[in-house]
Amino acid sequence: xxxxxxxxxxxxxxxxxxxxxxxxxxxxxxxxxxxxSDKKDDMRDAEMLARIARFDAKLLYPINHRDKQTQADRSLxxxxxxxxxxxxxxxxxxxxxxxxxxxxxxxxxxxxxxMKATEYIPDVLKLSLMPILEQIEDISNKIAAYDKTIKEISxxxxxxxxxxxxxNGVGPVTALAYVVTIGDPDRFRKSRDV
Length: 194
Prior knowledge:
By secondary structure, the chain is mainly α. Helix content is about 60%, strand content about 5%. Strand 1 (about 1-5), helix 1 (about 10-20) and strand 2 form a beta-alpha-beta unit. The model has no long low-confidence stretch (mean pLDDT about 90).
């Protein structure tokens, strides 16, 4: 069976592998014959996938999806990343609002921003910015909880993260992201392929 990689293909390929002996997941970026075509429809795309798979499966540039648990662990990393970006956006909003009133919030870490910024917010902005500072505190607490979970997952499920963390400046988050992205390192013939 041949399918094209998409947002649903990890789930569909796992489902199909229970029924069909082999599922080939084609790399859509390498299948110019499909994505570069002027005639786009699902039936034509399916027929082209089938013809390519029958002729030479290597022309699909097949990809291997991660297993369900690894996919869930990557989702945890993505959720943390979204919270970090959200917190950064909120901090920039507070800094910009205070600056527009002629003030300036002193330099501090993101984790302590909600405490430090309070003293720099003018009275006229307290109504609009204090709820945002509460959200920043809540998000910081959630990020810390994610960090704890990521550290535990790294130690229990992915022992290779300890090796990656030996590199100066690499912590549990970066190590786990690297290890779950690489997956099975034996799938690469040369280190340059990584």
